[in-house]
Amino acid sequence: MMSSSSKSSLLALLALLLTFSTTDAHVELGFYNETCPNAEAIVLEEMKMILSADPTLAPSLLRMHFQDCFVRGCDGSILLNSSANNLAEKDAPPNKSLRGFDAIDRIKAKLEETCPGIVSCTDILTIAARDAVFLTDGPFYDVPTGRRDGNMSEAADLPGNLPPPTATIDELKASFLQRNLTVKDLVVLSGTYLRLYNFSGKGDADPSLDKGYAEKLKRKCMHYDMETTLVKMDLKSPMKFDLGYYKLVSMGRGLFTSDEALLHDPDAKAYVERQAVAASPEEFFGDFAASMVRMGKLGALTHQKGEIRKKCAFVN
Ligand SMILES: *[C@@H]1O[C@H](CO)[C@@H](O)[C@H](O)[C@H]1NC(C)=O
Ligand SMILES: *[C@@H]1O[C@H](CO)[C@@H](O)[C@H](O)[C@H]1NC(C)=O
Ligand SMILES: *[C@@H]1O[C@H](CO)[C@@H](O)[C@H](O)[C@H]1NC(C)=O
Ligand SMILES: *[C@@H]1O[C@H](CO)[C@@H](O)[C@H](O)[C@H]1NC(C)=O
Ligand SMILES: *[C@@H]1O[C@H](CO)[C@@H](O)[C@H](O)[C@H]1NC(C)=O
Ligand SMILES: *[C@@H]1O[C@H](CO)[C@@H](O)[C@H](O)[C@H]1NC(C)=O
């Protein structure tokens, strides 16, 4: 006879295994090599134009990707609109805190012109988030692709899945460990979720943007030769992807409880303190890329699962 506690831990384990049987989904580098060879280049070109018009979308898109992956897995559920009888994730309270849905729609429309029905909205968001980092002076890293789009999005899924800004270190760790992500992933990605590019990323807290910045970006983009591959926009700006988050947290000036919470875990604290004084962001960039790739595999739908949406806001 099994004790009821070992029975329930067995059940919990089974539930965990079932939940994460898709974690090691077979996304791969260059999934669109044959079917839409310019897919990633098209996303990058669009992202340059999108960010030159509104650089504040860079952290928004990064957070959108994070939120998509944490709720129901990376399946584009965050992009779906509410319907008459369903409140979707994007409209969950605190609603309207994510921006940039139209940017994803715009990229999708461009890709549909070139390769109709091929590139999933989930992959577009994943690639756009990577480009948002790269175009604001962060690292460029290869992202595996081949995710397909899910068909459900429910506001009710948020509360149990997205750690709130008031989360304690234990809650944050649990949320990550539940997804087979480590404390290191937590400390590396927390800037992404909690405080983006040195601002909260809450819809109400967007930085007042340096007026000249958008103009500077625009000029830079006009000089940019569309044929050359990758050029960075190395401009001084609040939208710069750097170690600022760790500097603030180490000084005890995090914006949210969860930021401070990092200092209550010895490993997380050591990481924060090391990055806060690092001479170069190299270590963080490497770690960030690895954590993003791991996070980007959470619950991804591949092969026969899911669909390629025609429009990102609606199931086919
Ligand atoms: C796509 O091409 C890249 C670069 O040549 C290669 O590394 C990758 O493995 C290819 N992927 C697929 C699925 O063919
Ligand atoms: C879908 O949702 C987005 C963002 O919430 C909104 O801007 C857009 O108008 C919606 N589209 C339709 C057709 O309702
Ligand atoms: C936004 O959230 C509030 C609660 O915070 C809720 O009452 C309202 O219905 C939501 N709006 C939409 C459009 O989902
Ligand atoms: C949504 O997807 C699930 C899993 O792939 C599938 O079982 C279900 O039939 C789909 N629902 C609709 C309405 O397409
Ligand atoms: C969690 O990650 C480890 C190391 O990457 C891997 O060996 C293990 O199979 C993963 N477990 C689950 C449930 O995905
Ligand atoms: C972050 O923003 C705060 C004000 O919100 C500012 O005092 C601080 O210098 C900024 N830190 C970095 C590293 O940009």
What would you report as the Rg, rounded to the nearest angstrom?
A: 19 Å
**What is the annotated CATH architecture of the domain at 169-285?**
Orthogonal Bundle
- Note the overall shape: globular
Number of helices: 13
Could you tell me the CATH topology label of the domain at 169-285: Peroxidase, domain 2
Sequence stretches where pLDDT stays below 50 over 5 or more residues: 17-23, 196-237
- Biggest sheet: strands, sense, closure? none
Protein structure class:
mainly alpha
| Count of beta strands | 0
Order of helices and strands: HHHHHHHHHHHHH
CATH superfamily of the domain at 169-285: Peroxidase, domain 2
Chemical compounds bound to the protein? 2-acetamido-2-deoxy-beta-D-glucopyranose
Helical fraction equals: 40-55%
Q: What proportion of the residues form beta strands (DSSP E)?
A: under 5%
- CATH class of the domain at 169-285, named Mainly Alpha
* Whole-number mean pLDDT: 80
Report on this structure.
The chain is mainly α and 316 residues long. The chain has a domain at 169-285: Orthogonal Bundle (Peroxidase, domain 2). The chain has 13 helices and no strands. The longest helix is centred in the N-terminal third of the chain and has 17 residues, at 4-20. The protein is globular, with a radius of gyration of 19 Å. Residues 17-23 and 196-237 have low confidence and may be disordered. It binds 2-acetamido-2-deoxy-beta-D-glucopyranose (6 copies). Residues 26-316 form the Plant heme peroxidase family profile domain. Its cofactor is heme b; Ca(2+).
